[in-house]
Amino acid sequence: MASSTQTASDLAALIGRRISVAGHFVGFVTLDGVDDLGHAVSLRIRTADGVLQETVLELAELESGTVAPAEEGAGLVEGGQLFDLIESRRIELAYAHDPNLAVSLSGVRGLPHQIIAVYKHMLPQPRLRFGLPTTRVPARRSWRGFCSRSVGPSAQALGRHA
Fold it and tell me: Which tens digit of pLDDT belongs to each residue from 85-113?
């Protein structure tokens, strides 16, 4: 009975640290809590993706060295993972270096007056920002509606709108 209390207290010293639990979890996990059940120990574990799980270890498993603390220190990262990290940060910060990012990513060559109209005049206005059409047919319809509203009801009655 005294050995289970000692074992639980030893594991309690590892709370918040990364450990490996052989036969229960693949890779390293973070120990969030320990409960002494007398004949066993209940561990609250947080996996690498942040999911909280529980597992129960018998005293025999603890004595065989199932739980081992991870080595503290910086490990090596695979080149592909490092490239993905750097590329994601580059894309996140691209707008700071290229104010016309949407045009440059789309592959469409906008004329200078179109770029000025959209980026300098339309996007800063909240009402127009959400009314920008993305295809040609809705563009005609929205402009037709815009023109009919701006011309007024008297011109609509005479049939002089677009």
Answer: 888 888 778 777 777 776 667 777 778 88
pTM for the model:
0.42
What are the Cα distances from residue 80, in Å, to 27, 83, 85? Answer: 20, 5, 9
Contacts of 36 (CB under 8 A, 6+ apart): 4, 5, 8
Q: What is the DSSP string of 67-119?
A: EEEPPPSPPP--HHHHHHHHHHHHHHTHHHH-TTHHHHHH-----HHHHHIII
The answer to whether 30 touches 46, Cβ cutoff 8 Å, is yes
All domains of the chain, ordered by start, with CATH?
A: 2-69 (2.30.30), 99-131 (no CATH)
Residue of 73, 80, 5 lying closest to 38 (CA atoms): 5
Say whether 34 sits in a helix, a strand or coil: strand
